[in-house]
Design a protein that fits this description.
NICOL; mainly alpha; NELL2-interacting cell ontogeny regulator 1; 73% helix
Length: 94
């Protein structure tokens, strides 16, 4: 509907102008950002924090794995006990 109101040349020219403008503009570099730069000496050690985070995550995973392993052992023992009780009860009935 908009194409009917505008001349055919305008429909093709406007997107072309936007495309050329995008190609000619420079992207903003990191040194052009607004604000003050924080010296590297006063910034926290990102690698150290990431390492500590990963250590805590690994400890949590180890605890979870241990808890799952313990729960699995408990469930297996319950199943074995139930099967043993069923066998004893079946032998008593025969």
């Amino acid at each position: 509907m908009l194409a009917r109101c505008l001349p055919r040349g305008a429909v093709l020219t406007v997107p072309l102008i936007f495309l050329v403008a995008l190609l000619l503009t420079e992207p903003v570099r990191a040194d052009q950002e607004a604000g003050t730069a924080i010296p590297a000496e006063s910034r926290p050690c990102v690698d150290c924090h990431a390492f500590e985070f990963m250590q805590r995550a690994l400890q949590d995973l180890k605890k979870t794995a241990y808890n799952l392993d313990t729960r699995t052992e408990t469930l297996l023992l319950q199943v074995e006990k139930r099967n043993l009780c069923d066998c004893v009860a079946a032998n008593l009935l025969n």
